[in-house]
Amino acid sequence: MTKRDLDFMEHADGEAEAELDADGRAKVAVIHELGELVRGRLESAADGVPEARLARMWADIDKQLAPPAPRGWFEHYRSYILTAAISAGAVAALALVLRSAPRAAIEGAAAGVVHRPSEIEELDTPNGTGTVFNVADEDGSTTVIWVTSNDTVGSDL
User: Fold this and answer.
1) Does the pLDDT value for residue 152 go beyond 70?
2) CA atoms within 13 A of residue 58's CA, in its CB half-sphere
3) What is the DSSP string of 125-152?
């Protein structure tokens, strides 16, 4: 098809407004006639299809165009729930697998731990005095640091 034939088709469709010579008008008339032949053939083919078949085709088209039926809550969020359940299972499996290995190392290290009271070499308490003492009990010992302010004038202490 040459560029000239495309120009004739545009003219036949009403897209071009250029004046045509006799040969051009004849080609445009042939294009119109060809269009009428194709339309006529399609109309006769449609008349040959039984009415019930057309009704079924239109019903199928209407079903495809209709909005989907409303779904329940679970059906709407099913993929999110499934993803959450799989993720939780994976995390639980990892926790079980990783939990068993470090426990032996921690138990072995716990046997060598020695609790000793804290040793405080120097305590700076501006505008006050500080006292450090250790309290021993069944769990070991606890270091207590007691700070008393010198601004106790007028208080009942």
Assistant:
1) no
2) 7
3) -TTEEEEEEEEEETTEEEEEEEEEES--
Q: How far is CA 151 from the centre of its chain?
A: 62
Under the banding of pLDDT at 50, 70 and 90, the label for residue 14 is confident
Q: Which of 135, 155, 19 is nearest to 8 (CA)?
A: 19
> From its phi and psi, is residue 135 left (phi > 0), alpha (psi between -120 and 50) or beta?
beta
Amino acid identity of residue 118, one-letter, is S
Its pTM stands at: 0.31
pLDDT at 113: 58
Element (H, E) at 55: helix 51-65
CA–CA separation, 78 and 90 (whole Å): 18
pLDDT at position 84: 95
- DSSP secondary structure letter of residue 83: H
DSSP secondary structure string for all residues of 56-79: HHHHHHHHHHSPPPPPPHHHHHHH
Using CA atoms of 37, 40, 44, 46 in order, give the dihedral in degrees to the nearest 10.
110
| Residue ranges covered by each domain of the chain | 3-65, 72-113, 116-150
135 or 18: which leads in pLDDT: 135
